[in-house]
Write a structure and sequence with these properties.
3 domains, 4 helices, mainly beta, 14 strands, Thiol Ester Dehydrase, Chain A, 298 residues, OB fold (Dihydrolipoamide Acetyltransferase, E2P), six-stranded antiparallel β-sheet
């Protein structure tokens, strides 16, 4: 721990700069991917969605200038200690001022903390948190904290309980519906916009009031990935994780079943069903519609 703690406070990027100025095309791509139609992100006075904060600092495949060796040295030290696997756990963002087209961002990143060794279901290891301060000129625009777990994976076992979803006051109604084999979609009672995942307010009009609509179960694969790594004992890779576009106009992430992982395609018609697991766990999944191909109409 003494060697690990020595890295706290060391920079991992100094005077980095964004590959491109804040720009409308990237804002448009982001909003289309997120389904965010808020008018503040379009027009001559557009601002960038606050959650894009980190996007302007990404180095892409070629990386960016200003990187130091401290972060790579820390990860190597953890590898040598047997913590050879990594998973991103969470991030936190603080917004100070909006970013607008034409702004050129610079940033500095520091290794903020390395935790004591922790034991998790994935294995034991250390949480590493970095903090990136993002500026426009001398002005702080926001702060992005990113946390990973570098861990030694536990040996895989034949059986392991399926991870349970995190249920909170904002999404409890959704999971109550799932337990009843009903897929409920939030709908703003102010502007009528459906939304998923469940949120406390409408991201179109800002209204706090809503009701629910039960999904028909019809959908198509909007996008997908095939998971090979990292392995997790409760799952058997490779398997497909898809972004499903429901007939009601919202999208949700789930598994595609009833078809081999390498046969999943964008546009594949699917149908909702519910799978039950141990400990009364019920999850919505989507089965490939038999006899229909991607983009095939009825």
């Amino acid at each position: 721990m003494e060697r690990l703690k020595a890295y706290e406070g060391l920079p991992s990027a100094v005077a980095g700069s964004g590959k491109d100025p804040v720009n409308l095309p990237m804002i448009r791509h982001w909003c289309e991917a997120m389904g965010d139609t808020h008018p503040a992100y379009t027009g001559p006075d557009a601002m960038a969605p606050p959650t894009m904060l980190q996007a302007w600092t990404m180095g892409g495949l070629s990386g960016h200038t200003g990187r130091t060796e401290a972060y790579d040295e820390l990860l190597t030290l953890l590898d040598e200690a047997g913590c050879t696997s990594v998973v991103a756990t969470d991030c936190e963002q603080e917004y100070v001022r909006p970013l607008r087209p034409g702004d050129e961002v610079t940033f500095d990143t520091v290794i903020e903390s390395v935790s004591e060794r922790k034991t998790t279901k994935l294995g034991s290891g250390h949480f590493v948190t970095t903090r990136t301060d993002i500026r426009v000129g001398e002005d702080l625009a926001g702060t992005h904290r990113f946390r990973i777990l570098k861990y030694a994976p536990v040996p895989q076992r034949e059986t392991l309980p399926r991870p349970r979803p995190v249920v909170n006051r904002d999404n409890a109604g959704f999971w109550d519906g799932v337990r009843q084999h009903r897929l409920l979609i939030q709908r703003c009672t102010g502007c009528g916009t459906p939304r998923h995942p469940w949120l406390p307010g409408c991201n179109t009009c800002g209204g706090p009031d809503w009701d629910t609509v039960e999904a028909s179960g019809e959908g198509t694969v909007y996008s997908y990935v095939v998971m090979h790594h990292p392995p997790f004992p409760a799952f058997t890779p490779p398997y497909a994780v898809a972004l499903i576009e429901l007939a009601e106009g919202v999208r949700m992430i789930s598994n595609v079943v009833g078809v081999a992982h390498d046969k999943v395609r964008i546009g594949l018609p699917v149908r909702l069903e519910f799978q039950e697991y141990e400990d009364a766990l019920v999850l919505p999944v989507f089965r490939a519609a038999p006899g229909r191909r991607p983009h095939e109409t009825r």
